[in-house]
Amino acid sequence: MLPSKVVRKKAGRFVPVLLAGLILAACTGQTPQAPSVDIQGPAMGTSDYYLQQVQQSPNDNKADWQLLAIRALLNEGKYPQAGQQINQLPQSLSDTQRLELQLLTAQLRLGGQDVANAQGILAKLDPSAMSKDQQRRYYGLKIAASQGRPSLDLLRALIAQEPLLADKAHQDNIDATWQALLQLPPEQMNSLVINADENTLQGWLDLLNIYKANRSEPDMLKNGIRDWQVRYPQNPAAKNLPGALSQLQNYQPASAGRIALLLPLNGQAQIFAGAIQKGFFDAKNGVLNVVSAPGSAQDPIALNDDGDDAAENPDAPQDGGGDRPADAVVSPAAAPVDAADGDASEPQAAQAAPQEAVPAPAAAAPAGSVEVKVYDTSSQPVQQVIAQALQDGATLVVGPLLKNNVQQVADGSTPLNVLALNEPENIQNHPNLCYFALSPEDEARDAAHHIWQQGKRMPLLLVPRSSLGNRVSKAFAQQWQQLGGDTVLQQSFGSTAELKRGINSGAGISLSGTPIAPAVSEPQSVTIAGLTIPAPQQSGAAESAAATGSGGSVDAVYIVATQSELQLIKPMIAMRISSRSSVALYASSRSFQAGTGTDFRLEMEGLQFSDIPLLSGANPALMQQAARSFNNDYSLVRLYAMGIDAWTLANHFSEIRQVPGYRIEGNTGQLSATEQCVINRKLTWSQYRQGQVVPAS
Questions:
Q1: Angle, CA 283 vertex, CA 280 and CA 286 arms, to 5°
Q2: Which domains are assigned to the chain?
Q3: HSE, side-chain direction, 13 A CA sphere, residue 588
Q4: Cys-Cys link to 344, which of 185, 186, 340, 542 (CB 3.0-4.6 A)?
């Protein structure tokens, strides 16, 4: 037996050799580790990478790689390939895999515009069983499936998604929540029932109430928001206000100071400029501030031709109205106006004020120290006129009136605030520029809102076969689809003689038409919290809707016609539908004239029509005075009302430009501004009922 010392010595010699052998064995025997798979977490790879892993992975985690590949394919918009991969998944999946598959299937359905099936899948899922990333995608899918239609469910999805987001996606969520609140239909707002533990939703609703109560008083609104932030410190909007409301922090009221009024004082548009100029100076000089009794809409007076079109493009030939020639009212030769010279600050038109005047629905700002100087845009380029106004010390420009001049102002640059009296073809968003116009398109957009709010969902437009009809149809269809509507049908009619031949033959007018393709940009994908969903596309229902026959699914008809045309169109519709039909009829102000007799009003029973408040009986005394001033030419009365509202807007330019949702009760409508500061007008709607004109119900 060897001594212990010898044994220890020999063992010591073998230790390094043994360690080296073990290390070498480990190195030579090691196989590459497969990448980890987590289907519940973010998927950062491309579809090609995940599909490669599917080919290389063992069977025990192949389905996980397939699910990640499907998610990547969907995010890349490769829907057919994603569908193929779903079909290749094994039948036996774990609960975790099955949950992920349901999320992906809902996303695939949305990509294929199968919204109903996507909503059905999502309704069956329990978000509490999901990971944070899956919850973020789940709520993103629910938001996308709402297709922009505001509802309590949409609000709840946005609120639940908010804590799962960061950075820009988080702010986008807050802005989207605010927009959904603003767009919530009144009937839903009035019937909201929320749970006792929905503190965040309650906070949002209180913020909305504060905004609605104070939106016309910027300082009070700012104070109300600060108080709300103290009461709801945990609400996400208390820490990050919606973008629209955060602008209030920088709100700075500005005095009009000296106003430059830019109008064409010579040429075809002179007569229109004179009416606007008179309204502007009547408001400035305070002749509207005599208090009168409240008005009534029982006997409104309205335009008897295309006054709106005249305001939109005053130097263009106008469509005829009634039985008169096209230029009987709106042509400058019909009623010459004594316009002031370009340097005059008190035009003759303004001096011919009515002896007894009453206030406009909106309280116009007092003249005070505000100076107004009129500049003629028909004698020199508009940029030179603005440069001269700036040199003269102007702080705000009202005008120009003609569309091409407005386009030049939008294309150029000026340090002055500008309230343009028209809209260019392509709106440009400048922080010192607003657009105020009276146009048929503006009236059509308001009609779309009104008809939508009355619960109608399949409108037909009856419009003249002309550029006017095409413009109105496109504006209506664009607004309708923004509200969440689908197909809008259009049917064009010809001259009065054609309509008479149709009624004599007993043909009538069927409630059918061709789908309108509004002039909008190509649909783009929408990304919600990293989840990409294609923009909604028109379904095949549009084509089938074109064949809709008499009394089919059409439930509303919007008619743009003169009074004489409407007298033929309404009975022609009645020829083709049952007297018990629920189809509602609406008309633009083009068809309504002053002095209509009882017989006409009885013939129009049930028909609703829109007009500006001044011509709808909101202020009868002012309306009558204005009508006398313009020899009952109500197209000029409409422009006179525009001049009054232009003065009010000029004195509230800072609010209308900077305070989101700021509203003015004007003579041409309830005025508010879009984000691009295009002034929208909510018109007054009336209805023929038992030979009377009453407010529409």
A1: 145
A2: 36-145 (1.25.40.10), 440-612+682-695 (3.40.50.2300)
A3: 32
A4: 340
Q: Is the pLDDT of residue 572 over 80?
A: yes
Q: Could you tell me the pLDDT band of residue 508, with boundaries at 50, 70 and 90?
A: confident
Q: Give the separation between CA 557 and CA 511, rounded to whole angstroms.
A: 8
Distance between CA atoms of residues 323 and 308, nearest Å: 18
pLDDT score recorded for residue 670? 94
Distances in Å between the Cα of 678 and the Cα atoms of 107, 379, 435 are 36, 27, 5
Other CB atoms closer than 10 Å to residue 138's CB: what's the count? 24
Which amino acid makes up residue 528? I
Residue that has been written with the tokens 């991969």 in this structure: 85
Strand duo 670-673 + 531-533: pairing = unpaired
From CA 587, how far away is CA 560, in angstroms rounded?
6
Pull the structure tokens for residue 229: 């932030």
Query: How much is the pTM?
Result: 0.69
Q: Using a pLDDT cut of 70, give the percent of the chain over it.
A: 77
Q: Are 634 and 657 in contact (CB under 8 A)?
A: no
Ramachandran bin of 142, using left for φ above 0, alpha for ψ from -120 to 50, beta for the remaining angles: alpha
Q: Which helix (H) or strand (E) holds 275?
A: helix 270-284
Residue 323 to residue 548: CA distance in whole angstroms: 33
DSSP string, 54-76: HHHS-HHHHHHHHHHHHHHHHHT
Q: How many CB atoms lie within 10 A of CB 74?
A: 27
Secondary structure string (H, E, C) spanning 543-566: HHHCCCCCCCCCCEEEECCCHHHH
What is the C-alpha to C-alpha distance for residues 4 and 604, in angstroms, rounded to an integer?
Answer: 124
